[in-house]
Design brief:
mainly alpha, two-stranded antiparallel ribbon, 3 helices, 33% helix, elongated, RNA polymerase II transcription regulatory region sequence-specific DNA binding, DNA-binding transcription factor activity, RNA polymerase II-specific, zinc-finger
């Protein structure tokens, strides 16, 4: 029997203990299609198959996975402050994009012209 030193879990195979110990390290496996993360890679694979319909995708065709997410806090980083930027008070230029109403009216006019 192989006992976890960090919790009461006990395993019959050493490989299962090693796999379990990774959960205590805070390693997570992120889904490449949604924000979900998983403690075990096989749970991620089941999720990909059952939720997103992704099954046995060859490694060279898989999306590049994000780096494993750890639950440990990141070391404090220095924050850099950008220099102050002054923007003149000038009116913004007009847009040449059509509104939904204008698009509908144009489509109706074209339909009437062809009929």
């Amino acid at each position: 029997m192989f006992k976890c030193e960090q919790c009461p879990s006990v395993f019959t195979a050493k490989r299962n203990l090693i796999r379990h110990e990774k959960t205590h390290a805070g390693i997570r496996f992120p889904c490449t299609a949604c924000p979900s993360t998983f403690s075990y890679k096989n749970n991620l694979n089941k999720h990909l198959k059952n939720i997103h319909g992704i099954v046995n995708v060859p490694a060279h065709l898989r999306p590049i996975p994000a780096a494993p997410i750890t639950t440990q806090p990141a070391p404090a980083q220095q924050v850099q402050i950008a220099p102050q930027i002054f923007v003149p008070d000038a009116p913004a230029g007009g847009s040449n994009m059509l509104t939904e109403d204008e698009i509908c009216m144009k489509a109706m006019d074209e339909f009437e012209d062809t009929g």
